[in-house]
Amino acid sequence: MMYYVYVLESLKDNHFYIGCTNNIKNRLQLHNLGKVYSTKLRRPFKIIYCEIYPNKGDAFTREKFLKTGWGRNYLKRVLENYFEAKKLGR
């Protein structure tokens, strides 16, 4: 089984949500249907980043890291072109 660490962007408020799951398609659907308490008021969402791990522990450790300041800085660097294009309206 594979585990996914993902970053969602709210199309409503442009904020991010970082999570981990073993079924990313289903999890995105749950977020967008409002079935996830922590995100139900911020939907709809789109996935802007995803990493895949074969080990659950590694995936949850990575999720935890991405939720830190260091992790958010990492995402800003990795998604630099995405954010630049968004800023320019592309």
Task: Write a concise synopsis of the structure shown.
This protein is α+β, with helices and mostly antiparallel strands. It has helices at 24-32, 56-66, 69-78, 80-87, and strands at 3-10, 16-21, 45-53.
List the helices and strands and how they pair.
Blueprint: E1 3-10, E2 16-21, H1 24-32, E3 45-53, H2 56-66, H3 69-78, H4 80-87
Describe this structure in words.
There is one protein chain. This protein is an alpha+beta fold. The chain has one domain: GIY-YIG endonuclease (3-Layer(aba) Sandwich). 42% of the residues lie in helices and 26% in strands. It has four helices and three strands, in the order ββαβααα. The protein has a three-stranded antiparallel beta sheet. Strand 1 (3-10) and strand 2 form a beta hairpin. The longest helix is centred in the last third of the chain and has 11 residues, at 56-66. It is globular and about 40 Å long. The relative contact order is 0.21. The model has no long low-confidence stretch (mean pLDDT 96).
